[in-house]
């Protein structure tokens, strides 16, 4: 069986590398080419690149696992993300595409903020770059952990490379392929591979639930619903056992979209503002199909497991378990490739955003202001490798809790950058002092909230997701400080 799986995985890896080599010939001659693909992304590539870089292994592991364990009540996270993504396309996408060009043709989020608020350019650029690199090192590590666990679960005792564990080999293979196409082809390679990976992910999330429901041993909707009702009637309830705080913590995941650098950078790279509505429609359609598939996989995968006596120790492995059980090895390999696609699309995006910040907001700002574009491209490539290696070290312990930090990192980015991006694009009275205050206030609030354990238990009740207080405090800090330190010379005209 393993040979068929490896054939599919080999073809997938080869395709990613070929795309990287193609992109190298098209878009690595300047910093703008390497970091933003020359701002020439088509609507379909921009849309699926934003979606694929967003979802990561969470779409095929985390969300189905949550639905498998607790039923439809967990689907509110997906609904909140869908609404947040839609609003992000409406509010942020067109304005960010226009204003990053208007304010000095900024190639990174820190550079845009510095150009938008010149009186606080240095602290904004420095602090935001540090936040991006540090959070993304951990965020990238979580993706490598997912890749390692896939190989550990799917190829146990099959891989034997110099005495390395299956988990370690999985990390090396995942990171190695990502580094090749990211280092070689830059942003265009990352975006084009994201497009292919997004298609693979969506197809897997259409095929898998359909086979689980209507294939041998499935029984269809009626039989699956009956089985779930016999196990626990609350599994098919959207609200049973869900408190208001729990509901609020779930749907407010969508607030994180406004501040995720690896997602909103796609808006900066889209071909033109006129392409944004088309990209939005494509992206939201992809997201709807993928989320519905993930939800169906978790819920009906539970019914299938019960009906067929499957022992699934870890709910988050339901995709892996069913991939191996229900399909021919070649198809199983394709489904594993879909999971790797989810992981690798996010890793590559995070590596490139971190590399861009290190190059533009540290190397070019402090070390070599006169650096040529070619030099910056080479430095960017070196930084991709550097951040990737740091992430691999963080992910090296299979017992680490890195995966548990994903929600914290999402909240940290959403709180630090979300209100900052929205208000900088839409409120002309905002100034540099307010921007710095919001960036610091949002980050610190999230860190304190987590440190005090209030995301697990708050005032004797259920925990409150840290993005809620972080986002609110950041927004208030920006408004209050901007009004209190009004500087008419810094007011910038909004371009839309």
UniProtKB/TrEMBL annotation:
Its main location: membrane. One of its GO terms (biological process) is proline transport. Pfam families: SSF (PF00474). Keywords: Amino-acid transport, Cell inner membrane, Cell membrane, Ion transport, Membrane, Sodium, Sodium transport, Symport, Transmembrane, Transmembrane helix, Transport. CDD domains: SLC5sbd_PutP. It catalyses: L-proline(in) + Na(+)(in) = L-proline(out) + Na(+)(out). Catalyzes the sodium-dependent uptake of extracellular L-proline. This is Sodium/proline symporter. It comes from Marinobacter nanhaiticus D15-8W. The lineage of its organism: Bacteria, Pseudomonadati, Pseudomonadota, Gammaproteobacteria, Pseudomonadales. The gene is putP.
């Amino acid at each position: 069986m393993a040979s068929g799986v490896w054939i599919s995985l080999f073809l997938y890896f080869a395709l990613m590398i070929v795309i990287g080599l193609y992109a190298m010939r098209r878009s690595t001659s300047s910093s703008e080419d390497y970091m933003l693909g020359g701002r020439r992304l088509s609507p379909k590539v921009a849309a699926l690149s934003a979606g694929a870089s967003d979802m990561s292994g969470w779409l095929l592991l985390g969300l189905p696992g949550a639905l498998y364990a607790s039923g439809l009540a967990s689907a509110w996270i997906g609904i909140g993300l869908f609404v947040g993504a839609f609003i992000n396309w409406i509010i942020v996408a067109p304005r960010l595409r226009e204003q990053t060009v208007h304010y000095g043709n900024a190639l990174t989020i820190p550079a845009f903020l510095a150009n938008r608020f010149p009186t606080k350019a240095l602290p904004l650029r420095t602090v935001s770059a540090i936040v991006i690199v540090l959070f993304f090192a951990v965020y990238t590590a979580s993706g490598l952990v997912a890749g390692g666990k896939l190989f550990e679960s799917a190829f146990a005792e099959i891989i034997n490379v110099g005495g390395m564990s299956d988990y370690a080999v999985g990390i090396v293979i995942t990171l190695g392929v990502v580094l090749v196409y990211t280092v070689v082809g830059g942003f265009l390679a990352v975006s084009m591979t994201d497009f292919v990976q997004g298609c693979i992910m969506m197809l897997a999330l259409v095929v898998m639930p359909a086979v689980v429901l209507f294939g041998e041993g499935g029984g269809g909707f009626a039989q699956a619903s009956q089985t779930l009702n016999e196990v626990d009637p609350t599994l098919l309830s959207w609200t049973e056992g869900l408190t208001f705080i729990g509901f609020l913590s779930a749907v407010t995941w969508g607030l994180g979209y406004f501040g995720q650098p690896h997602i909103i950078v796609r808006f900066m790279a889209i071909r033109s503002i006129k392409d944004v509505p088309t990209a939005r429609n494509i992206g939201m359609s992809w997201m709807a199909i993928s989320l519905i598939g993930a939800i169906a996989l978790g819920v009906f995968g539970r019914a299938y497991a019960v009906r067929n006596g499957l022992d699934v120790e870890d709910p988050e492995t339901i995709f892996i378990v069913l991939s191996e059980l229900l399909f021919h090895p070649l198809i199983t390999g394709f489904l594993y490739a879909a999971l790797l696609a989810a992981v690798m699309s996010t890793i590559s995006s995070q590596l490139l955003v971190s590399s861009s910040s290190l190059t533009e907001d540290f190397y070019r700002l402090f070390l070599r202001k006169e650096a040529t574009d070619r030099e910056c491209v080479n430095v960017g490539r070196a930084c991709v490798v550097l951040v990737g290696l740091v992430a691999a070290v963080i992910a090296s312990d299979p017992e680490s809790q890195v995966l548990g930090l994903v929600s914290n990192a999402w909240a940290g980015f959403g709180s630090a950058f979300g209100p900052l991006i929205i208000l900088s694009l839409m409120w002309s009275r905002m100034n540099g002092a307010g921007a710095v205050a919001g960036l610091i206030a949002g980050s610190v609030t999230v860190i304190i909230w987590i440190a005090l354990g209030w995301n697990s238990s708050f005032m004797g009740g259920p925990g409150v997701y840290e993005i809620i207080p972080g986002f609110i405090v950041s927004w208030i800090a920006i408004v209050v400080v901007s009004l209190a330190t009004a500087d008419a010379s810094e007011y910038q005209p909004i371009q839309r």
